[in-house]
Amino acid sequence: MSFTKLSSAFSVSPQISEADVERAARDGFRLVVDCRPDDEEQGQPNFHDVAEWAAKHGLSARHVPVTPSNIDDASVADFAGALATAGGPALGYCKSGRRASALWALSRAMPLGAETVLSAAKEAGVDLEPWKTRIIARGGAPAGDRGPGSYDVVIVGGGSGGVAATASLLKRRPSLSVAIVEPADVHYYQPGFTLVGAGVFKPEVTKRSMASVIPDKAIWIKKSVAEFAPDSDEVVLDDGSRLRYRALVVSPGIKLDWEAIPGLVETLGKNGVTSNYRADLAPYTHYLAQTLRGGRALFTQPPIPIKCAGAPQKAMYLSCDAWRRAGALSNIEVEFHNAGPVLFGVPAYVPALMEYVKRYGIDLRLESKLVAVDGPGKIATFEEKDANGAIIRVERDFAMMHAVPPQRAPDFVAKSPLAAESGFIAVDPESLRHTRYGNVFALGDAIATTNAKTAAAARKQAPVVAINVLSVLDGKAPHVGYDGYGSCPLTVERGKIVLAEFGYGGKLLPSFPKWLIDGTRPSRAAWFLKERLLPPIYWSVMLKGQEWLCAPHMIEKGEQPAE
């Protein structure tokens, strides 16, 4: 049986036997893809048989059964997903090899261009005429001549992840055509909001115009995304227009669901209710910390996932420190209502934080979730568990409240084909490639991974995405990985920080030697880092594609072809 080569990483064949599988293994193939429905004709080996042969000879096997008249987009996506797992050259087969060829051409039309895949098929003597129109529709004009609305890479989101990934891509390959979709005019340095709330930063230092941070070589499309159409490699914008891409990078951030707590929206910025999660409210946090001299101060934290899970208590510690310095702390009852079961998710940092909880006399209330606010009446309602584990409602009056809303994936993400069950984007946690679409990557707060949702995480993710996108564009598989790194500088008092740095599974990942900064203890060096060094690093390093201290690791299985 002869194998017909369509690319360096993919060949096709008519129906194969065990001897053919053995030969494929000798020839260096790593995957066999069966494109025939079982029992299509009498005497045909079913997929179960082929999978056993493949396993016997050290190959993997996947089944993507189609008929010539029913090669739909879902089957094309399944085929692309199968090839993405190959780990080397793949062999596809059906009765004649034609269906397998069509699946390959349809799945690779956009990354390689319609002209490329059609030429490869023609040279191999494979007739793809029945699918030619679809191949051209998916692949369009040859790469470099795609016309308006078509780009090598489309990036959704102009926040820290989107801009950093754009800069990292263009730093490596300036010739790329890259479009970044972002409707906002202003880009915020969100980690600075905590220090605005403490009066350390002026609000204006945390923002710059979006135009000033988007890399010069990128095309800024000032619109919103309405939906994703990954089966046709398109993004649909809010005006109905479409952008086509060879690769897609999604970094739209997280939705702060203020409306989920009845009464909260109406009272934000007045009645003593504030939040450092909004740029315009952080100055009000500072005002309350400077003027409150008695009564009850409530600080709340919703269930995870949330953006920077340490931020709710950062505001609390800095407010307590301000009241301590003013001699007012003894007159203020401070309560921390955390919907979660622990003070902080990584145990190594809890002892140092608990020292400050005790120092400030904070009433720590775990598994207590804010569910309603009466701003004029200054009453907050929480759901807690009684001694028997039953959910009860508890009302607390307050003079001040720092509220943090529940957070979820943006609506246009949650309802899209890219979403996992959680609503967040389904990606492999190491390569950050989508679990079903091989030319889609994501980073930042909207991905369905277990890392902390922080700017520091996006900084480490950006080069991973950039390198792996280029690898996929070159017909290879992702080969560098993200370790789950996130950083949370916990501002326990003015001038001192507990610098939490950790990765997947809570593994400690310190950036500095312990003699310089022991992250498990409060330090002035960590405060200097946050106040003086991190803002310029953000604006002038991260958003410019410079990757100091964030080189990704190699994926153990190595670089793999993706055709």
UniProtKB/TrEMBL annotation:
Q: What's the superkingdom here?
A: Bacteria
Does the record bear Electron transport in its keywords? no
GO biological process entries? sulfide oxidation, using sulfide:quinone oxidoreductase
Which SUPFAM superfamilies does this chain map to?
FAD/NAD(P)-binding domain (SSF51905), Rhodanese/Cell cycle control phosphatase (SSF52821)
Query: Beta-lactamase hydrolase-like protein phosphatase-like domain location, by residue?
Result: 5-110
Annotated ranges, domain FAD/NAD(P)-binding: 151-270
Record's keyword terms, sorted: FAD, Flavoprotein, Oxidoreductase, Quinone, Transit peptide
Any idea which GO molecular function terms this record carries? FAD binding; hydrolase activity; quinone binding; sulfide:quinone oxidoreductase activity
Name its co-factor(s).
Answer: FAD
Q: Which NCBIfam families match?
A: TIGR01244 family sulfur transferase
PANTHER family named among the record's database cross-references: SULFIDE:QUINONE OXIDOREDUCTASE, SULFIDE:QUINONE OXIDOREDUCTASE, MITOCHONDRIAL
Q: What is this protein called?
A: TIGR01244 family phosphatase
Name its species: Methylosinus sporium
